[in-house]
Design goal:
Blueprint lengths: L2 H22 L16 H13 L5 H12 L10 H7 L4 H10 L7 E10 L17 E4 L4 E12 L4 E8 L8 H4 L5 E4 L7 H8 L3 E4 L10 E3 H7 L3 H12 L11 H16 L11 H7 L4 E3 L5 H11 L2 H15 L1
Parallel strand pairs: 1-5, 5-6
Antiparallel strand pairs: 1-3, 2-3, 3-4, 7-8
Length: about 325
């Protein structure tokens, strides 16, 4: 997305959002100044989002050496770097609303996962001051960390459906009810989302949570299509890798909570504007028509036996079609 297209998209949203936002704000009864600044809110939002789209790591260098030098024609009323940093928290609420505006549509196949956002090295936890009262120690499959957890839900096209930020010590299953308020269909997650009460709660809202089993749990029967889609949960790992290494949503140089949130939200928005995203090419209606009401055990060791049973159960021509459908999904 070019800078002009980004600004037009952001400005159209701001023109529609600003009026409703002012009407919903609480008033203290005191007089307040409403003088317009040199930079309007849509210009500030555009510069912040373009920083992540441009794939830069240092915002000060980006603003002083690129925006001030090469984008003077696009932004004639630029302010100093220190003043711009002071203006960043003022657009946090519009950025959150704009992120919600950029969400994709639920297609019935969704993936959920969480990732840690460390705010400092483990050796510096006792000396850390910026997030002392809000960040917490947490543990993932790799190591301990000090910071927050970012919970994400995406569809099969790689589009963001929901996100939530919690402290590092919050269980992955806690924010799931809020993340799935507008979802329907199948929701695929890892073993950290195993919970019978949570599964029953989501089923009442037409959301079927599908996860793998732990090694000491008894086998259970699941649909073959669900088994194949569980293997494609790595699409969310790819998205998280792009968010951290391309959009730069995680680093340890933050000096305020507000600017940390601005950096995170802008990184998610920049990913939403990517022309190509990690996605799956699914043809679920045809796959389900070939394997109606078929269940099998969820362990990997039984996969070869299941394929043999499938070939015995269908007509030879249907077996060949089924093999062609399974191959790209089960790689």
């Amino acid at each position: 997305m070019s800078l002009l297209e980004l600004y037009c998209h952001v400005d159209d949203f701001w023109q529609a959002f600003a009026t409703h936002w002012e009407q919903e704000q609480l008033q203290s009864g005191e007089k307040c100044r409403r003088r317009e600044g040199q930079l309007c809110a849509s210009e500030i939002m555009t510069i912040l989002i373009y920083f992540h789209i441009f794939r830069q790591r240092d915002f000060k260098t980006f603003y002083t050496q690129f925006v001030h030098v090469q984008l003077r024609g696009e932004f004639p009323n630029l302010v100093s770097y220190n003043r711009f940093v002071e203006l960043m928290p003022s657009v946090l609420v519009p950025l959150c609303a704009y992120l919600r505006y950029c969400y994709g549509a639920c297609s019935g196949v969704s993936f959920i996962d969480s990732t840690p956002l460390a705010v400092c090295h483990n050796r510096r936890i006792t000396r850390h001051r910026t997030f002392k009262d809000v960040a917490q120690r947490g543990k993932n499959s790799v190591d301990w960390f000090f910071g927050f957890k970012l919970h994400l839900v995406v569809n099969d096209r790689g589009q963001l459906l929901a996100c939530r930020l919690t402290a590092g010590n919050v269980d992955d299953r806690v924010p799931v009810p809020q993340l799935t308020r507008w979802l329907w269909g199948k929701l695929f997650g890892d073993k950290g989302y195993l919970s019978q009460p949570l599964t029953e709660q989501l089923l009442q809202r037409r959301v079927h949570l599908v996860t793998r089993l732990k090694s000491k749990m008894k086998n259970r029967l699941i649909l073959l299509a669900d088994k194949l889609l569980l293997r494609k949960r790595s699409i969310l790992e790819t998205i998280i890798d792009q968010l951290k290494n391309i959009s730069q949503i995680e680093h340890t140089r933050h000096r305020s909570m507000a600017n940390f949130m601005v950096n995170l939200v802008c990184g998610l928005i920049a990913y939403s504007h990517q022309p190509t995203k990690p996605s799956l090419v699914l043809d679920l209606p045809q796959l389900e028509s070939l394997i109606p009401n078929l269940y099998f055990r969820s362990r990997e060791s039984n996969l070869s036996i299941t394929v043999k049973l499938l070939k015995m159960s269908f007509h030879p021509e249907q077996s060949k079609k089924l093999g062609r459908q399974i191959k790209p999904l089960g790689q």
